[in-house]
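Design a sequence for this backbone.
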């Protein structure tokens, strides 16, 4: 969408501590997912995490209210920018990331809130963690709207509903597969 980038925030809660054996499959795949994203068509960038080597953190890490009472102080979440709905969808549901999604139920608790939230930002703007947490809560409380939406009910930057071009998603996914072949081969050797 000309003049805008798509922001995505996702959030979940693991079944055990990050360093535990129960979450090893997630932990081992995480660097592969970040690398696959960086190679994906339409990827703009992602927030890093304070005190973790890699990209700069986009503000102080903030969590949605769903973390309260979970027994955890930290939870898996990510914040990134993409050029289009189709580019994000191709990355999310194909290749290395899709392989991780197949195993997510082993690593994450079942949740009553949406797994991710999407929204548009002006090109050149960068969301912060608090934006993602607030918009995920808004989506959970009010359902999809131009302010906070999902792939199932997406909107344009002007607030109008939009239909995702599935043929474009497939074409982007096919192009991404070429650049992810080595990564996908490596993650398929990992334990679930």
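Sequence:
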């Amino acid at each position: 969408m000309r003049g805008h980038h798509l922001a995505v925030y996702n959030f979940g809660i693991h079944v055990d501590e990050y360093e535990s054996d129960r979450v090893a499959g997630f932990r081992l795949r995480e660097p592969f997912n970040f690398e696959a994203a960086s190679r994906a068509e339409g990827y703009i960038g992602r927030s890093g995490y304070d005190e973790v080597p890699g990209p700069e953190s986009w503000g102080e890490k903030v969590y949605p209210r769903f973390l309260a009472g979970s027994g955890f102080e930290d939870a898996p979440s990510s914040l990134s920018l993409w050029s289009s709905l189709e580019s994000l969808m191709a990355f999310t549901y194909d290749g290395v990331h899709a392989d991780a999604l197949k195993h997510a139920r082993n690593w994450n608790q079942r949740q009553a809130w949406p797994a991710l939230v999407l929204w548009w930002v002006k090109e050149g703007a960068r969301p912060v963690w608090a934006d993602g947490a607030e918009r995920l809560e808004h989506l959970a409380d009010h359902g999809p709207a131009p302010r906070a939406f999902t792939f199932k009910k997406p909107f344009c930057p002007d607030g109008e509903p939009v239909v995702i071009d599935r043929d474009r998603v497939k074409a982007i996914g096919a192009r991404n597969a070429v650049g992810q072949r080595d990564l996908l081969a490596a993650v398929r050797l990992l334990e679930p």
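The mean pLDDT is 96.
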